[in-house]
Design a protein that fits this description.
Structural class of chain A: alpha/beta
Largest interface: A-B, 29 and 25 residues
CATH architecture of one domain in chain A: 3-Layer(aba) Sandwich
Order of helices and strands of chain A: EEEHEEEHHHEHEHEEEHH
Oligomer: heterodimer
Order of helices and strands of chain B: HHHHHHHHHHHHHHHHHHHHH
Protein name (chain B): Thiamine/thiamine pyrophosphate ABC transporter permease ThiP
Shape of chain A: globular
Helix content of chain A: 25-40%
Largest sheet of chain B: none
CATH topology of one domain in chain B: MetI-like fold
Number of helices of chain A: 8
Membrane topology (chain B): Multi-pass membrane protein
Main location (chain B): membrane
Keywords (chain B): Cell inner membrane, Cell membrane, Membrane, Transmembrane, Transmembrane helix, Transport
Distance between the termini of chain B: 30 Å
Radius of gyration of chain A: 18 Å
Subcellular location (chain B): Cell inner membrane
CATH superfamily of one domain in chain B: MetI-like
Strand content of chain B: under 5%
């Protein structure tokens, strides 16, 4: 279980608060107007922003002292999810060894996950030679290798067209099924939330509200969501 | 966050910053402690006056001449333009002693110019004194000034010139509305940059300055140490020189100094206002004259020196080998220091600002001030000539560090902004981060900075002149000694060797970093 216990991030002009748990293996959409704090929430959970108050826990253990790379989670950002100067195999291999000391067995596993996401034989390609969709697949291949119990998605597929985005979400779904990971996914699109996430967190004006059932939320949107959706 | 990673990224920078600060402030402290009430005599003040006058003249002439050359390069396209602009970067790396030999070959007693004058029955000119020093400084700094002013021209958006054409502007209107406002911004910084370089000029003033009336403070420090062994006078002069340089640096910090190196200068902007034949002829003549002024001396040294290359005495080759090793060690120190300081600097905060400040400290010091301080500091413990080579390497590395730091900081900031979050999210820290993330993105600026550092160290004739004994001369020292012994042919041959080594080192290191490894 991921716990946000009296969490407050930021200070002065902008602060975000969150105070709720999410069960392991859940799939949660994070929705809300721009600037409301969706990315802030994910960056705080991932350890890039310090908590001004409260704490983030995993299975009851405080994640505060852990560096981002040591936390039981993977995160995909809006962009820059691959190192442009490393090959695909190296980029994915970083999921096994951050110092890139890979055994023969590791290389085999890298090839295997690349094949798994439809990039078989592209080990030596550089990110610049890939389409946006293929870059997303490569990043997801690394998520597979890291096999962390939580996956945070900060709109990594926002730049893709609707068809490709649906394809990526399907892949995320498969990966989440395989690894049993809890997924927190920021999105602008209610359709993504409905398709992918049984639970939705509404973020508005510095408050991340507790997750509620997605279907119920959209059936009877609160005023803030109503404004955001333009209803 | 990742504490281990922070330690690895911060500690080398702190060490480098402290070493640098100790070197700079320590030598300054030694100098001030020995300055002995600062009793400067008449000749000392004459040296101060001469230093300021020659630097001001050199800066003014370089910048004034740079304007028509940069304007011609900015509005003309011709075969070889790209090559010419690239070649303008070369004098920055050229050993000063080679430049001086080249100028002597053209303007000296037995030079091309006097041969021409004699042929038409005119009296010979002579090159020693204020005008010789200024001539050398203009030769060495005009290209830098041209590149800085050209940068200003290139910074005017191409659309501005299109608008000017649409409004029917002629050359006069373009000058009034576009070019003069740009020049008002660029010229003070360019002049100040040249002034600062000439303020600390040693080798050119040493050789072309004539007697007590044409001596810079740097040369006066050298004479006080080597000829009079009057260390308190040397210290007093060094203190004055430090004050001059620090003052100019502080002034430069308030005026934006344009960048004189870096790429992108060969872009040609389409112009509609300069098509007239008169202007074309003017620009053509300006470019031809500038190219002749810059390349004739170099060509003269090469042509006169090449035949003697095979007959060079063994000590010259030994000195060449010594110099190459010293240049490589110096470049390695510069890169390690700049990388360490840069990693600390991009993290911001108090430590970051201190690291950046430490990296800029050497700008205010000059080779001979550092040298005099180290000479006095070393004297109680060892004979100066026994430490000549390590001291020279250290001083050269320190002097080149600000350039290297400025060259790699933009790339480091870019890596920090675009890659560090990803690296942290994957737990890539410490040496793995340096090896996998930072260095691969920094190869190009590191290669260039290493090349600049190596070439500058290879050609340096500064602090080594204070320390060198009989047996451990560097190649520039050997060239100078051959000149002093009136063995001009051998000096020119050694100069060719020095020139080849300087540019060879730069080329190899720049190439080493330049391979395209990113594909993005």
């Amino acid at each position: 279980m991921l716990g946000l216990e009296g969490l407050r991030v930021g200070a002065g002009d902008f602060a975000l608060t969150a105070d709720w748990p999410v069960p392991a293996g859940a799939r949660v959409a994070v929705i809300g107007p721009s600037g409301a704090g969706k990315s802030t929430l994910l960056l705080a959970i991932a350890g890039f922003l310090p908590a001004a108050a409260g704490r983030v826990t995993w299975q009851g253990r405080d994640l505060g002292p852990l560096a981002p790379g040591d936390r039981p989670l993977s995160i995909l950002f809006q962009d820059q999810n691959l190192f442009p100067h490393l090959t695909l195999a190296q980029n994915v291999g970083l999921g096994l060894s951050p110092a890139l000391r890979l055994t023969a067995g590791d290389h085999a596993r890298v090839a295997q996950v690349l094949a798994r996401v439809g990039l078989a034989g592209r080990e030596d390609a550089r990110p610049g030679q890939l389409s946006g969709g293929e870059q997303g697949r490569a990043a997801l291949a690394r998520v597979l290798l890291r096999a962390r119990p939580t996956l945070l998605l900060d709109e990594p597929f926002a730049a893709l067209g609707p068809g490709l985005k649906a394809e990526m979400l399907a892949l995320v779904e498969e990966i989440a099924d395989e690894t049993g990971a809890l997924v927190l996914m920021v999105t602008h699109d209610p359709a993504d939330a409905r398709r992918f996430a049984p639970l939705t967190v509404l973020v508005e004006r510095g408050v991340a509200h507790p997750p509620v059932e997605t279907a119920a939320l959209f059936a009877d949107p609160p005023p803030a969501l109503r404004d955001y959706l333009g209803l | 966050m990742a504490r281990g990673a922070v330690a690895v990224r911060g500690l080398p920078g702190a060490v480098a910053g402290l070493v640098l600060a100790a070197l700079m402030l320590g030598t300054l402290g030694v100098v001030l402690a020995h300055a002995g009430g600062m009793r400067l005599t008449g000749p000392d003040w004459a040296a101060v006056r001469f230093t300021l006058v020659q630097a001001a003249l050199s800066a003014a002439i370089s910048v004034v001449l740079a304007v028509p050359v940069a304007r011609a390069l900015a509005r003309r396209r011709f075969a070889g333009r790209r090559l010419l602009i690239a070649a303008l970067g070369a004098p920055f790396l050229m050993p000063v002693i080679v430049a001086v030999l080249g100028l002597l070959a053209i303007f000296g007693r037995g030079g091309v110019l006097n041969a021409g004058l004699a042929a038409v029955g005119l009296p010979p000119v002579q090159v020693y004194g204020l005008h010789g020093v200024v001539l050398a400084h203009v030769f060495l700094n005009l290209p830098l000034a041209v590149r800085m002013v050209l940068q200003g021209w290139q910074a005017i958006p191409a659309e501005r010139f299109r608008t000017a054409a649409a409004l029917g502007f002629g050359p006069a209107e373009v000058a009034r509305h576009l070019e003069r406002p740009m020049l008002r911004e660029v010229l003070p910084g360019a002049a100040l940059a040249v002034f600062l370089i000439c303020l600390a000029s040693f080798a050119a003033a040493l050789i072309l300055g004539g007697g007590p009336r044409a001596t810079t403070v740097e040369v006066a420090i050298y004479q006080a140490v080597r000829f009079e062994f009057d260390l308190s006078r040397a210290a007093a002069l060094a203190a004055v020189q430090f004050a001059l340089c620090a003052g100019a640096v502080l002034l430069a910090a308030r005026v934006a100094v344009p960048a004189g190196f870096g790429g992108g200068l060969d872009r040609a902007v389409q112009r509609w206002d300069a098509g007239r034949w008169g202007l074309r002829l003017l620009d053509g003549a300006v470019i031809a004259l500038a190219a002749a002024f810059l390349f004739a001396p170099l060509l003269a040294v090469i042509l006169r020196g090449l035949p003697g290359l095979a007959a060079l005495p063994a000590p010259v080759w030994a000195a060449a080998g010594r110099s190459v090793v010293m240049a490589l060690v110096s470049a390695a120190l510069v890169l390690a220091g700049a990388l360490a300081l840069g990693q600390l600097a991009v993290r911001g905060g108090v430590a970051g600002r201190l690291a950046e400040l430490a990296g800029m400290l050497p700008l205010a010091a000059s080779s001979l001030v550092l040298g005099a301080g180290l000479f006095i500091a070393v004297l109680p413990f060892a004979a100066p000539e026994t430490v000549a080579l390590p001291v020279t390497v250290l001083v050269n590395a320190a002097m080149a560090l600000p350039f290297a730091l400025r060259l790699i900081l933009p790339a480091l900031r870019e890596v920090e902004a675009t890659q560090m979050r990803l690296a942290e999210s994957l737990g890539i820290g410490g040496w793995a981060r340096l090896r996998l993330v930072t260095l691969p993105r920094l190869r190009r600026p590191l290669g260039f900075a290493g090349g600049v550092a190596a070439a500058l160290a290879m050609g340096d004739l500064g602090v080594i002149a204070l320390f060198a004994g009989e047996g451990n001369a560097t190649l520039p020292m050997q060239v100078w000694r051959l000149m002093g012994a009136f063995r001009t042919e051998a000096a020119e041959a050694a100069a060719v060797l020095l020139l080849a080594a300087s540019f060879g080192l730069f080329w190899v290191m720049d190439r080493g970093g330049g391979r395209d490894d990113a594909g993005a």
